[in-house]
Amino acid sequence: xxxxxxxxxxxxxxxxxxxxxxxxxxxxxxxxxxxxxxxxxxxxxxxxxxxxxxxxxxxxxxxxxxxxxxxxxxxxxxxxxxxxxxxxxxxxxxxxxxxxxxxxxxxxxxxxxxxxxxxxxxxxxxxxxxxxxxxxxxxxxxxxxxxxxxxxxxxxxxxxxxxxxxxxxxxxxxxxxxxxxxxxxxxxxxxxxxxxxxxxxxxxxxxxxxxxxxxxxxxxxxxxxxxxxxxxxxxxxxxxxxxxxxxxxxxxxxxxxxxxxxxxxxxxxxxxxxxxxxxxxxxxxxxxxxxxxxxxxxxxxxxxxxxxxxxxxxxxxxxxxxxxxxxxxxxxxxxxxxxxxxxxxxxxx
Length: 349
What we know:
The structure is a single chain. The chain is of the alpha/beta class and 349 residues long. A 6-stranded parallel sheet has the order 3-2-1-4-5-6, sandwiched between helices. It has a 6-stranded parallel sheet with strand order 9-8-7-10-11-12, with helices on both faces. Helix 3 (41-50) runs parallel beside helix 7 (145-155) and helix 8 crosses helix 9 (224-231). Strand 10 (258-262), helix 11 (265-273) and strand 11 (277-281) form a beta-alpha-beta unit. It folds into 2 domains: 3-155, Rossmann fold; 171-343, Rossmann fold (3-Layer(aba) Sandwich). The protein has 14 helices and 12 strands. Mean pLDDT is 89; it is low at 340-349.
């Protein structure tokens, strides 16, 4: 065991609060990225439907707060910014059950243990060697991340009510529809090994423009040079402002006719907003992290070329070259024709 884990285990034991006798005071922990937080929304809804009178508190990241803002199934949300104030605040809540949905920070699990809940539920094998802190460990089997989270709340006694993602835009956040059918291209990704070549996105954009569709390019501030590069080669293409907040971006994503994207968070945001989407996979497995039970969603996947896959060490993901622009365009045309009635009317929230 590493010295970091030994220190964290000792701190968790030293600062642990006494157990709380009250029932159904839940803390759900989801402190990572956009897609990870969206994958938690079916579990949050299922927990609320199972225990309508329960107190449900969510510890999340700043991006997670934007995902879960206006979510009707939680009582309170805490954003993890500073560790000590967060611990002190949560300790006063006297939770009886803590469910670790997903976290990448090593300190999270010891913090959860120190809160003194009688039950600490989580998936083993993904917690940097700290699994011994769980009172209710759940095996990590080959399953979609949404299902993995649902199995955690089932261990707490809840039932599975939904596997569909949710994102709640308010009327004042909505924007008018685009004047014509619009396809969004999302060429970026935090991980370079997930990026389909820029020239392929350009080819798709040109072909769809020739069919009469408008093209917008999406991404964050770091991806703006890539966005501009691709837009410069596609007639009349425009950019969605990369500095927009997540919620403002979501309002625009809800209005596009189709999103074509690498394996990254906007794929799952589109699913939550009921926006048709084509997602591109090779080094990652869509059975684990792709669109799940989402209408008008297609995962185009090819087998990784390297065994084992180099993942983040990959300098050029040539496995994604197995997906050609023509295949994507054909799928896009099918989706655009078959889902036109859905995409021209506002999606329910």
